[in-house]
Batch of 4 targets.
Target 1
Amino acid sequence: MIGDIRTFRLSADTRIKNFDCGDEDINDFFHHDSYDYSEKLLSVTYVIENEEDTLAFFSLSNDKIAQDTSNKAAWRKIKKRFSHTKHRSDYPAVKIGRLGVSQKYGKQGLGTQILDFVKNMFLTNNRTGCCFITVDAYQQSEAFYLKNGFKRLNPAEKIKADDTILMYYDLRELK
């Protein structure tokens, strides 16, 4: 049972409760690197917990979708979303750097709730201008992001075994 939960921004004095998402890299980031990233202003990490455990966490940082990181066909699709007078060589985004859900609380829709929270956060409290959410998705997570409205930036790109997949969500689809 999840019980009462709270979501808050990680700070230097945050004591992380029991958490294991089953991925060593994501666990290590949360337990160790998230503090350093926050201190150095590289990302902001949000924690979701109940009385006993950390249920999930996610970290956000600034990003962009740029012409030089997209193939020509993908870039044309991105540019087409904007009027001709608004064409640029890049468009502002927020990156989900890490997202982890505890194995103990998996399969309860927390990942989707986190994505909905981030989407809403940048629609209602967008302080700098941001029209996309990006993520470098693990291959095993691609279906999850697709189900939640994300698209591959370069759909024809061949992905090697350990590569991540650059995906994006257009926040203007929610308006």
Target 2
Amino acid sequence: MSQPRYPNSLPVRAIVERLRGATSTSHHTFIPDNLSLLDSNFIEHTRLLSPNQLTDIYLLALATNNGCRFVTFDQAVPAATVKISRQENLVVI
């Protein structure tokens, strides 16, 4: 959101304040980064088709493993790549 090419970009300070506000609500849960992308119990590596998918797949696996939802604008997240994921774990806005 601070990148100059981002529509209506904001200064970093304003983004930090927005993030602080969003994470202070009861709807926010901190999830530690405790899952390996290499763990084949969670990730179906044969379904990974592009390096562009890695972050979304990892975040979906992390959210699913912690009983949460991964919310994204990206309609092309290959949810079947995360073995443990269910429909309710991925929310596309």
Target 3
Amino acid sequence: MVRARSGVTVTRGRKRILKLTKGFRLSRHNLFRQSMVTLIRSRVYAFRDRRVRKRDFRRLWIARISAACRMRGMRYSQLIAGLNRAMVILDRKTLSEVAIHDPDTFTKIAELAKQSL
């Protein structure tokens, strides 16, 4: 007996996959085989890029802190070394937010780091 490939279960599975590929371009959203391949690839990218996003944000924070340090006549590495010696525990995200939204406080932090070097 031949295997049925147009039954309710198979159709339901295909419909679920095609629903997930809504918004994909060209035939990738309405041809089952192509949509399956594209969906697998998109999930691989999503898995990878959840980790890459963390790296990207850290790079952004460091660039912001570095720019704020240069305006105050010091380098990023000097700031971080000074804060470590002063036993100040501030992460880079917080430092960049302070540098953007509260420059006076960042100046005080930079002075503290400079004194402890």
Target 4
Amino acid sequence: MNSEQYREHIERTFNAFCKIVLYHAALGAYKKLRKKQQFEVSLDYLREFDFEPVATTDEYFVKYDVPTAFTVRGKTVIVESEQLAAALLRLPEKWREVLFLRYYLGYSDEEIGKICGISRSAVFRRRKIALRLLRKEMEALENEE
């Protein structure tokens, strides 16, 4: 074989190889698309009532709870939920104070202990008991309604 014929043979072989690779790559892409189409739904086929309406409603005339104000160590705490305020009023003052200092005023157990003159572990116990009692009071108020 002369070198020119050999060169043409190599080019034709390479071209054939490239065509086969491209053909199989296209087949793989078509298979992926077909598989994807089996599981996807076009938005054109979805009906309008399947969606939540894209709108808001005015709440001008909605009845809101009357906020209740509590005073804790000279600071005013406002509780907006009437049910929660009623349940908090049923708790003893020392447990209610710990809850307000922790959850409304953001003090840590250690800081509450310094403010109230008790240990951090006592604050933790009071808070735990107060939360348990508050849960019971909330359930009792729900059952009364």
